[in-house]
Amino acid sequence: MDAHVTGGNAPDSPDAPGRVTSGRVTRLDRGWSTVLLADGTTVRVRNIGEEVAVGDRVEIDAAGERIESVHERRSALTRRNSFEGSRAERQVIASNIDTVFIVHSLAAETNERRLERELVLAFDSGADPGLVLTKTDAVDAPRIAETRERLARIVLDVPVITVSARTGEGMDDLRALVGPGSTVAFIGASGVGKSTLVNALVGSEVQRTGEVREDDQRGRHTTVAAELVPLPGGAWLLDTPGLRAVTLWTSERGIERAFAEIFAVAENCRFRDCKHEDEPDCAVREAIGSGTLRPERLTSMRRLVAEEAGVEEELVHRERQSSRRGFRRPRR
After folding, report:
1. Would you give per-residue pLDDT tens digits along the chain (332 residues)?
2. d(Cα 178, Cα 327) in Å, to the nearest integer?
3. CA 46 and chain centroid, separation
4. How far apart (Å, rounded) are the C-alpha atoms in residues 269 and 26?
5. Which CATH number fits the domain 3-70, given the four candidates 2.140.10.10, 2.60.40.1840, 2.40.50.140, 3.10.50.40?
6. Least crowded by CB within 10 Å, which of 79, 205, 251, 294?
């Protein structure tokens, strides 16, 4: 990105005032978008009247002052906004991404229930998920092997990469999953090493990294805004601030894929609407009894299904209550 222009169009830009300009949102800052134009320059414009996410392809108005429209998204990493209390509000974290890398640190105990939620978000986005386990330099080989084996029972067929951004171990394996022209996103909790990973992939310090605490080898949160940065080879990488809460939006598709082993067994249940509780000939309960399925996976799935159903119910209720005001459910 050669230039950063605050407001308006770049001087001598081929998209001069008087015609609509196309671009891609690379950063959001409180009602303002930084948009990368076709000539490599960037402009800073307002998000008036539009729901905008990093990664969106947009049209800027003829005056070069605000986003006029957002193109249809081919993928969208979406969660329920955890800062809206009990009201269901959608937050689009990133759009038009090809791969969502879920980042966890080998130097800390993995929260398996959080990982399941992150998988649901990734699958539901329409992008391909991957799991990146960082800080191999901070643990021994048996710890790495045990963690990979344990988490493989959760992520199933999702690729798992173990890396050390500091020593370079595993980085070539990660780069192999980032194709030319693709857009990848990193999500995870604060302190798992996302910013260090971003800097290693970019080849320079584009994200400030924090000190590592001695007691748990966790870094301090440093990424303050989601931002697209270019990678060598023509790909784009989106680093996101650490997600404190992994809350679901309308995620039925993501749940089915994240718990694919349960849904596959459920095909053999006697009843198509089997709840896997006390129904006769329940294949899922039989699989749990035989040890083929783990009971905690069914418990987790039920919890997430109930959460997703609650969001759907609230949206339907709001649509009915607000029909006179022209309320419409937000697009995915």
Report:
1. 333 333 333 333 344 445 668 999 999 988 899 999 988 899 999 987 778 999 999 999 988 899 999 999 999 999 888 655 567 788 899 999 999 999 999 999 999 999 999 999 999 999 999 999 999 999 999 999 999 999 999 999 999 999 999 999 999 999 999 999 999 999 998 889 888 999 999 986 655 554 444 444 444 444 457 889 999 989 999 988 767 778 888 888 999 999 999 999 999 999 999 999 999 999 999 999 999 999 999 999 999 999 888 888 888 877 777 775 555 555 55
2. 40
3. 24
4. 47
5. 2.40.50.140
6. 205
Fold (topology level) of 76-239: Rossmann fold (3.40.50)
CA distance 277 to 285: 8
Q: Which CATH class for the 252-325 domain?
A: mainly alpha
